[in-house]
Design a protein that fits this description.
253 residues, alpha/beta, Elongation Factor Tu (Ef-tu), domain 3, Dihydroorotate dehydrogenase B (pyrk subunit), domain 3, six-stranded antiparallel barrel, flavoprotein, PyrK_electron_transfer, Dihydroorotate_DH_Fe-S-bd
Amino acid sequence: MIVEDMTIQKNECIALNTFEMVISGEEIPLHIQSGQFVHIQIGDGKLNMLRRPLSIADINRISQTITLIYHVTGDGTKWLSTLTEGTILNVLGPLGNGFEIKHSEGNQILVVGGGVGVPPLYHLTKQLVRHYQVTVVLGFATREAVFYEDEFRELTKTYISTDDGTYGHKGFVTDVVSQLDLNFQHYYACGPMPMLQAVQEQMIDTPGQLSFEERMGCGIGACFACVCEAKNDNGYVKICQDGPVLQASEVIL
């Protein structure tokens, strides 16, 4: 875990209340694994708030940059959205446990994302398509909320669904998955809790990994603000410390 001042290279709106931020630094990008997150210091003296955990959408170790995608939901992320190129951010990371990607060659892999759960799946998919047959299903609330469709389509077969039917398939990601005539040997999912519950139930006989987009306090496992019921001796796991990626078979949703 490293604390580093990183420089904003890009920060722009890419969909409804959704921003893409690219930041550069010397240390943190070199140590990140797909599925981990960083904790961003929020505030400029006038606004002092808890750090915000942001999922990592992409990593470029050559340029020493990471791409973050976040949804503006409150004062902290609203403040982030106003920052311009060249601004310095204090970044703590990488944090949490990332995805395990080693499977048998030729496996059919399913990747399912919903809303702000989509970002960490992009770098994951970039790695998976090097060795496996990957199908991606992404769900959003409405057409204006869709992002990274082209980026995923450049990698592999990608399906889009919207709750209101204004774009792609009308309905939920599980509706799309049920229509796919494919035998998946493993799956990955990240998104809101109801979506994870539905995917876990739908894929109950298939090994999978779930990445949780959970509200956090400290981000390092000290405050117990982001616990999830689990099948272990403690009866729970901490999303920030044990996750955000957990085996689907280990958690109770």
